[in-house]
């Protein structure tokens, strides 16, 4: 029986990486939002504590990225964070992005793709 083709492994690796970026964004943006709610919106220490736990979880999620270079992973995640923050605002806070918000987020996501998935050899 033959193993997966190199193309399949690449697709699976990219899919795993994208999923990890989405989980990281959920943990970091959600954690920061919980801290914001706890402090700025006076919802209390439990909200802040939940945010701190989520932010700690974000720190671990990045370690599961298939890419070995910390700097590359975090640089690429910066673009995910930008787009994810705008998406969070739309879904959770009913924020209405401008066309320039969307263009900026798209540029960031192109940067993520170049940093993480372009050949680096």
TrEMBL record:
The keyword Ubl conjugation does not apply. InterPro entries: EmrE-like, UPF0060. GO terms for cellular component: plasma membrane. The keyword Transit peptide does not apply. It comes from Planotetraspora silvatica. HAMAP family: UPF0060 (MF_00010). Keywords: Cell membrane, Membrane, Transmembrane, Transmembrane helix. It is a multi-pass membrane protein. PANTHER family: UPF0060 MEMBRANE PROTEIN YNFA. It comes from the Bacteria. The chain crosses the membrane at residues 14-36, 45-64, 70-92, 99-118. It is found in: Cell membrane. Belongs to the UPF0060 family. This is UPF0060 membrane protein.
């Amino acid at each position: 029986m033959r193993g997966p083709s190199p193309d399949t492994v690449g697709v699976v690796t990219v899919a795993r990486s994208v999923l990890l970026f989405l989980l990281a964004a959920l943990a970091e943006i959600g954690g920061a939002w919980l801290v914001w709610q706890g402090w700025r919106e006076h919802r209390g220490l439990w909200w802040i504590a939940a945010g701190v736990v989520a932010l700690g979880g974000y720190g671990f999620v990045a370690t599961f990225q298939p890419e070995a270079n910390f700097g590359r992973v975090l640089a690429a995640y910066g673009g995910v964070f930008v787009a994810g923050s705008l998406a969070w605002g739309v879904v959770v806070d009913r924020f209405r992005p401008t066309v320039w918000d969307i263009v900026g987020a798209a540029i960031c996501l192109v940067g993520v793709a170049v940093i993480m998935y372009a050949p680096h050899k």
